[in-house]
Design goal:
By secondary structure, this protein is an all-alpha fold. It has six helices and no strands.
């Protein structure tokens, strides 16, 4: 799988976890489990993506600004996740923060798929995209372990 296919697969997983979380209520085992899975997924995905795709794009003049913007969005999501982790899961504040995280995350994923990936394909050779996909898998696993 090249880097774009690999990232899109993760995006689907993140959207699914958000959908599952949105259906939960209160401080339940299911909400805790889904939130922990989403937190791990987002953190590992962002770290590996920044070390692979975004490292290559930041090195270009054509996509440096967009790549930096995407990395900033990763930081914003990480900040929201930390706020969620510190908030009572049964509170209305948790629900509001989760809704904001979900909205920002879905915007970010849509932006990557519609804007970043098509432009990156023009700059990154197919063979390099395959290498980045393999490196992404390794780095993501390292982050999870």
């Amino acid at each position: 799988m090249d880097i774009y296919e690999r990232l899109k697969a993760d995006h689907g997983k993140q959207r699914g976890l958000c959908g599952g979380l949105a259906k939960t209520s209160g401080d339940t085992e299911e909400r805790r489990r889904l939130f922990a899975a989403l937190k791990t997924e987002i953190e590992a995905h962002a770290a590996a993506e920044e070390q692979t795709l975004y490292a290559d794009l930041i090195a270009t003049t054509e996509m440096q600004e967009q790549a930096r913007h995407s990395v900033t969005e990763h930081k914003e999501a990480a900040d929201l996740i930390e706020e969620l982790a510190a908030t009572d899961m049964s509170s209305s504040g948790w629900i509001a923060r989760f809704a904001k995280l979900r909205e920002e995350l879905e915007h970010h994923l849509d932006e990557e798929e519609a804007d970043v990936f098509p432009e990156a394909r023009k700059l990154i050779a197919a063979g390099r995209a395959d290498e980045l996909g393999t490196a992404f898998d390794r780095l993501k696993e390292e982050h999870i372990d």
